[in-house]
Amino acid sequence: MSDKIAYARHGDIAVLRIENPPVNALSQAVRQGLWDAMDRAESDEGVRAVVIVGEGRAFIAGADITEFGKPPMEPHLPVLCNRIEASPLLVVASMHGVSLGGGLEVALSTHYRIAQPTARVGLPEVNLGLIPGAGATQRLPRLTGAQKAVEMITSGAPIKAGAALDLGILDRVTEGEPEAVGLAYAKELLEQDAAPRPVSQLPAADPLDWDATYDAVLAKGRGQISPAVAVRAVQAASELPFAQGLEKERELFMELMQTDQRQGMIHAFFSERAVSNLPELKGVASRDIKAVGVIGGGTMGAGIATAALLAGMEVVLIEMKEEAALAAHERISGNLAGALKRGKISQEKFDALTQKALTVSTNYDSLGDVDLVVEAVFEDMDVKKQVFAKLDAVCKPGCVLASNTSYLDVDEIAASTSRPADVIGLHFFSPAHIMKLLEVVVADKTAPDVVATGFALGKALGKISVRAGVCDGFIGNRILATYRTAADHMVLDGASPYQIDKALVDFGFAMGPFAVADLAGLDIGWMTRKRKAPHRHPDERVPTYIDKLCEEGHFGQKTGEGYYIYAAGKRAGVPNPKIAELIAEEQAELGITPRPFSDEDIVRRYMCAMVNEAAKVVGEGIARRPLDVDMTLLFGYGFPRYWGGPMKWADIQGLDAVLADIESYAQDDAWFWQPAPLLKTLVAEGRTFDDLNKDAGK
Question: What sequence ranges are listed for the domain 3-hydroxyacyl-CoA dehydrogenase C-terminal (predicted)?
């Protein structure tokens, strides 16, 4: 029998303890061990019941990720689950920690389920572009009803033990050591002469309006197909006998295994875990961070302060004037009130954070004891240098000095201090206490332990941290500027901003680029265009029609008018009729005859521009790996997760086809569509961006 399963007998009950640390993933050895242990229990004279329990932190956290992408090995999980369910012995799952994916499917194949109050259960397969494939779509609705099963499977979100009990997934919730709890429950069931109770033999769930449910789930997923396919699998549980329902589930599961979306989501899953694993930081200890300073209490500074407070750090926030300091305190308190309302913190914790852990001051001397300070002031180099001169004077030796700049040269900021080795860029995304991305911008003289500290802070704040080099816009904003320019060019050439926004939302983005510009503020782009104007290449095409709107004081949502017009109190807008007039005027000035674009043309140009600039960013070393770009775009810019990121999208399309399109676009605009050298090299060598990721991991 496998060494992953410990077999013990307590009277007429056999205990099968899964021992595959840290979270008892369902490796081949675990599956084989469970199979063999069930055989042993059934042949062990006098055994009447089996308790399955997990060692360590979890019952079973799910599949073994090291087996992803490899040929499946027997015993396959669906067959194992059917084998457990068919046992003549009474089988109990005693659950603690998490029971996710295949772990919950194993539990559903037992006859009775008991769990700790802190346990959580879930079916997250849709987050990998799949559906549960070992019977959960057929068993779960027989316990919960079809509607609740659809909600749980299509969301992928885990639920707590109490909710699982209410839904009928669990039979009992009891505190105690899991094995002891499971044994006591099994003894009680045997004393009651309870019989095995296969879920497969329970009545099928009542049907829903399946087509309407499918359409609603597909719309909610913004093009992700696996949740909608899960609806069809649950539908089979209502309409087909159990065995045929299992066949349908397997058929749908295998179809999803072959999809591009499954490739993209598996890539995102692994890249999310690899992105902060940098060879350069192996063996490098970070500096301690107990107290954090923040300069500037606007939306960004308040968000950074909120995130640090929620991570258990003390925060000193500096503002220029008393009224601004009071407003910053109110802003942070409002953010924390949101966490209180959502149950993330208690009232006692809220009071402690706002009254004790947070200090708001107008005096830089208050920063004397902080371990790291983040500057989050106006995006102007002279202003930032003035701030860093003050920080250089008041912060203790070893304090990390960080700038939250979105575009500016961190090397130049560092050079304005007497300690450039302590300076780093920490580019948060607004609202900083909610958005997951953190670009850790490493300047030429940044010390390795300061880089490690940036990543340690990101981890403490729950961020996806990406290493970036110094250039205008770093990784994300540099690429954003390029694909946004591609959209601007399409507008000048005949596509409307509203067609472009719709085409990209249909592709999977949460918002189109023009709606995003309104949300961020049109003044940001206006200011950037003015900043870059003195150094602009004469062949660069830069639309100016939107600047005229900015000159009138219209900056998007915050002023009620931009590409869209916003009614008071509403975030969604309607197209602004002025925009078409301004575009037409500029087209006439430039002698452009507008031409039609299909939605497919729009998406292809937008994506090719994104990939081409991203390849330049990787080729120059600004991003170390293509996956760094993918995670930046996924977590900071609303890129659809099911494509895995722009580099994975390009691999799926074929780099040769992407390059061919770029070269065809270059015939009309050779300056903008200069193919990235790295892209040309990869195509010539028949390699992919993912090959570079693998090379970096060796």
Answer: 473-566, 602-687
